[in-house]
């Protein structure tokens, strides 16, 4: 098993996802689920020199992914199963999501069991797992074994209970499981759970000073957003 790459106790935001920073050129292994047009992968590759797997379910977006050289791209829906799944296309590409059955505006797309995919591309665990997959974050997280979770350094997730793709109870249960698995939980969005960071305490030491710095970052961002709205 590889030695886990230690992130710094310094926070960065990459396309709406707040994460612990990695040193420039450290080449952390990043699995980007919900790549959209490749913005997140482009950002972490530019700042850290990350090695990245970018995954996008929407056929049009997957065909046009714009990512740095060396990034591995994949077209499938991240899920808790392998096979195919109905996928609802929307005018806002970021709102496209999986469905239980075919309907108007749906296409069939391949789906992959996240746990089995990680066993292939990151058997020792990714340094960062990003989930922005419009409700599929729940079955995707459920697909990960306790042993796999123990090898992931940090997870950044946009939960979609705010738009009805999953229930608040399902999100509560997913967060509780990650806490039991040894992750510290840091929500950075104020009115939704759209930017939640999970840090594996078995890999990253989080003493009182580190937690204070993370809390200060959260409140500083919130205060900055308030000032921005007042000045608009």
Provide the fold topology.
Layout: E1 11-14, E2 17-20, E3 29-33, H1 39-48, E4 51-56, H2 59-63, E5 72-75, E6 77-79, E7 83-88, E8 97-98, E9 106-113, H3 114-121, E10 128-131, H4 137-142, H5 146-150, E11 154-157, H6 168-180, E12 183-187, E13 196-200, H7 208-231
Parallel strand pairs: 3-4, 3-10, 4-5, 6-9, 10-11
Antiparallel strand pairs: 1-2, 7-8, 7-9, 11-13, 12-13
Question: What brief labels describe this structure?
Answer:
232 residues, alpha/beta, Rossmann fold, 4-stranded mixed sheet
Estimate the mean pLDDT confidence.
Answer: 90
**How far from one another are the termini?**
51 Å
What is the percent of helical residues? 25-40%
Give the count of helical stretches. Answer: 7
- Note the run of SSEs as H and E: EEEHEHEEEEEHEHHEHEEH
Rg value: 17 Å
Domains, number: 1
Helix- and strand-based class?
Answer: alpha/beta
CATH overall fold name: Rossmann fold
Output the strand order for the largest sheet: 5-4-3-10-11-13-12
Uncertain residue segments = none
Strand content: 25-35%
Task: Describe the main β-sheet briefly.
Answer: 7 strands, mixed
CATH class: Alpha Beta
| Strands, total number | 13
Shape: globular
- Per CATH, which architecture? 3-Layer(aba) Sandwich
What does this structure look like?
The structure is a single chain. With 232 residues, the chain is α/β, with parallel strands linked by helices. It is 31% helix and 26% strand. The strands form 3 sheets. It has a 7-stranded mixed beta sheet with strand order 5-4-3-10-11-13-12, with helices on both faces. Strands 6-9-7-8 form a 4-stranded mixed beta sheet. A two-stranded antiparallel sheet has the order 1-2. It is globular, with a radius of gyration of 17 Å.
């Amino acid at each position: 098993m590889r030695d886990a790459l230690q992130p710094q106790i310094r926070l960065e935001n990459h396309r709406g996802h707040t994460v612990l920073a990695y040193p420039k050129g450290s080449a952390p292994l990043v699995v980007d689920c919900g790549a959209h047009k490749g913005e997140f992968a482009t950002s972490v590759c530019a700042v850290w020199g990350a090695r990245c797997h970018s995954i996008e379910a929407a056929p049009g977006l997957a065909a046009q992914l714009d990512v740095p050289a060396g990034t591995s791209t994949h077209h499938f829906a991240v899920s808790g199963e392998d096979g195919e799944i109905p996928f609802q296309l929307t005018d806002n590409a970021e709102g496209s999501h999986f469905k239980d059955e075919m309907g108007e505006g749906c296409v069939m797309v391949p789906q992959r069991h996240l746990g089995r995919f990680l066993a292939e591309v990151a058997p020792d665990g990714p340094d960062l797992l990003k989930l922005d997959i419009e409700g599929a974050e729940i079955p995707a997280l459920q697909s990960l074994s306790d042993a796999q979770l123990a090898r992931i350094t940090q997870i950044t997730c946009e939960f979609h209970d705010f738009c009805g793709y999953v229930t608040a109870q399902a999100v509560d249960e997913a967060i509780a499981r990650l806490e039991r698995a040894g992750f510290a939980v840091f929500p950075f969005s104020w009115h939704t759970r759209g930017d939640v960071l999970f840090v594996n305490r078995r890999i990253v030491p989080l003493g009182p000073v580190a937690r204070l710095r993370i809390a200060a970052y959260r409140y500083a961002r919130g205060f900055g957003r308030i000032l921005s709205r007042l000045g608009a």
